[in-house]
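Hi team,

Filling in the usual template for the complex we talked about on Friday. All components are listed, including any nucleic acid strands or ligand strings, so the model treats them as one assembly.

SUBMITTER: L.P.
PURPOSE: interface mapping
COMPONENTS: three
RESIDUES: 377
SEQUENCES:
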Amino acid sequence: MGRHSCCYKQKLRKGLWSPEEDEKLLKHITKYGHGCWSSVPKLAGLQRCGKSCRLRWINYLRPDLKRGSFSPDEENLIIELHAVLGNKWSQIAAQLPGRTDNEIKNLWNSCIKKKLRQRGIDPNTHKPLSEAETSTATATTDDRDKADRDLKLPSSSDRVSASGCSTELDLPEPPLPNLHPLISVPDPTTPAHLDRLPLHNPGGFSSECLNPGSHTPLWQSQNPAEFSSILGPNLFKSNVASNLPMDFSYLDNSSTSNSNTMEYENAIFPWSDMVPNKDVAHIGVEGVQEDLKWSEYLNGLMPVSSVLQTQNLALGQSQGQNHGQGQFGFCGGLKEETQFSISGLNPWYQYQNQQFQTNSDMYSKEFQRVSSSFGHL
DNA sequence: AATGCGACCAACCGCCAGTTG
DNA sequence: TCAACTGGCGGTTGGTCGCAT
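RESULT (copied from the run log):
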């Protein structure tokens, strides 16, 4: 059951992993990928079961893991997502790049739960404790635990009232940002949101949606899994997506775009805005590939139209433009390892900069709006 | 210095769902 | 169709550490 059959066939090690074991596993996966987990221990020369190897890789060895303590923003996001998703740790983790479900679960059980209780909020229902106690007064602990597991999505009005009663843990109510005209947030009530991006069936996109470097379709520029990881598992296909401008003329330097400006939908963005100055906000983590950084930023709840717009602009930037700290490559196998800078001048980057400040709140709200239109997940 | 306690977290357990033969 | 296998998930355990007494 819990231990797979392979675990019984031979005496396998249990408990903490030694540095030597870590090294063996890391080397093996780096070189060959994990493939079938059950075959990994044998191939890597480990006396472990495949399940244990998988866990070790996912929770500890994976190179894209973020180390260190959780930021207040991350904690707030976890609380928001938990209010929507319940104990769906893997789904919550999917919205926190670099964090594992185990890590989040531990944080929740050891820290956040306690904080919420101290502040008079029931961590299971996200309602004030008095209210939660009344509704579960006749239930046993086990019953409550089961109810927690079966927690249905609260209605959006429930969520508002719940958050309205909390104090410091309340997320600020960010006004919907003044979106740059290029950005349109899809209407989450549109049934089209129920569809997912056709990551493995790109036929839904215009064939003009090309990687400007190779002129291959975006989805062919890398393997589907990678593309999926970049776009994130929770993006909703919207009617907006089908209306995306497929005019990539701005990628062509022979058009009105030139070496000094980039034209996009009648707006001209000066490349000079990308030149680092004292107002530049540096985004990303040293030593991490820029496309990964962008994938972390974009992974998750960003409305698809915004993602694709961002992609388009990112791709535009990627086409031979190199400004100060460097161009950034977001999509399509663009592997520039560069540092991306944002100027405070350019409206697009102003918008992006704002998003870096508010995306957690905004997209968790957006997610709630969308998920409440689903009724359930 | 010894002990107790709580916090933290890595890893295991048990179950489930999907896949395969 | 069904059993075995596998990957993935959420719940739980147990070891370690730091701090208070």
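MY TAKE: The beta strands of chain A are 261-264, 267-270, 281-283, 340-342. Residues 1-3, 14-17, 51-52, 55-56, 59-60, 102-103, 106-107, 109-111, 114 of chain A lie near DNA strand B (CB under 10 Å from a C1').

Thanks, L.
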